[in-house]
Amino acid sequence: LPNFSSFSGGPNICPRCNKTVYFAEKVSSLGKNWHRPCLRCERCSKTLAPGSHAEHDGQPYCHKPCYAVLFGPKGHIFKSLNNQSGKTIQ
Ligand SMILES: [Zn+2]
Ligand SMILES: [Zn+2]
C-alpha cells in the first residue's frame, strides 16, 4: 500500500472527500483546494462559487438562505423556536 498518510494535510487533499485534487478539477476556497463538485453548501448542498460564499467553522455555506438562517440574527430566533420541546407548534 502506498503511504498516503505522509500526504495528509497536504494542500491538494479535498477537505470534503479527503481525496487528491488534481489541477484540472481544482477550485480554491477557504485556503484549501476542493474538487469543484465538493465545494458546496453544508446545509443545502448547492454548488458554490469559490471566494463568494459564506463560511462557518471551516465549512462552506451559501450566504442565502443557509448562512443567514443558521448563523444570522434570525437564526437564533429560529433555533430558540425549535428548542421549545414539549409543545406542538402548528
Ligand atoms: Zn472532493
Ligand atoms: Zn445553502
TrEMBL record:
Alphabetic keyword roster: LIM domain, Metal-binding, Repeat, Zinc
GO terms classed as biological process: intrinsic apoptotic signaling pathway in response to DNA damage; regulation of gene expression
Keyword Repeat attributed: yes
Protein name: Cysteine-rich protein 2-like
Taxonomy of the source species: Eukaryota, Metazoa, Chordata, Craniata, Vertebrata
PANTHER family, per database record: CYSTEINE-RICH PROTEIN 1 (PTHR46074:SF3), CYSTEINE-RICH PROTEIN CRIP FAMILY MEMBER (PTHR46074)
GO molecular function: zinc ion binding
Origin: domain of life: Eukaryota
Listed SMART domains: LIM
PROSITE patterns in the record: LIM_DOMAIN_1, LIM_DOMAIN_2
InterPro entries membership: Znf_LIM
Annotated signal peptide: none
Organism encoding this protein: Labrus bergylta
Residue span, LIM zinc-binding domain: 12-73
